[in-house]
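Action item from last week, closing it out:
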Amino acid sequence: MNDRDALADRFEADRARLLAVARRLLGSELEAEDAVQEAWLRLERTDAEAVDNLSGWLTTVVSRVCLDRLRARRARPEQHMDDDASTAASATDADPEREAVLADSIGSALLVVLERLSPGERVAFVLHDVFAMPFEDVALVVDRSPEATRQLASRARRRVQGGQVSPDLDLLRRRQLVEAFLAAARGGDFNGLLAVLDPDVALRPDQAALRMGSLRETRGAAAVASALAGGAQTARLALVDGLPALVWAPGGTIRGVIEFRVADGRIVGLDVTGDAARIDELEIVLLDQ
């Protein structure tokens, strides 16, 4: 294998994550593909051996390309988004029965609200609140101080929460809930689990997860907390179809997924997927390394 092939392999390992970042920054599949391709072209012109953290470098490059495109879009307001955005806009009148659909891929309604943010606000919000990037790293993308970047994200968060998005789709709060759940489960903290679980929470493993033998369908905060306290030792934080979740990936292959349903600031449902075909259909981006 020559050096270019080795570099291409390293790039391909990050492609899914880079596309996920670009999709959420741009709201367009076609533009996201273009942004990731631009990152590859820049990588080819760069001495990759001199880059300490290639994944971080690629994320920064893709994010800067997206930021430039968002700014250019602002300068040409007559330019229309592609079909992705059109589909999103049509979803703003969704009835309550479509809440689950809105939650997929961050939610169509949230995409509409993101369109109202300035380019800097959108980049700061998506990179920090969605992809959990530290403000120090986001600051390098938006070319501001970490404190100024924090203010950008905070302003964006207030605008998002004031828009047409259910508070239960607040991404930062969702991530904080999942992180608190994970810490409590790993530490065997029964009371910590009760603090994040709704009294009527339901744990629902699919048939494949049931066959693994470690979980069964369970209802009620105390019962669910008892079943999960001390567990999740090897679970990893991830985005699953754009929302914070947990995955198990022994040997680098994802074998299980926990997706969370949230209402009124509590976890009301945990859906455990062990079915390989279903997992293959999910867009999964690992957040912790």
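Closing note: The CA atoms of residues 23 and 86 lie 14 Å apart.
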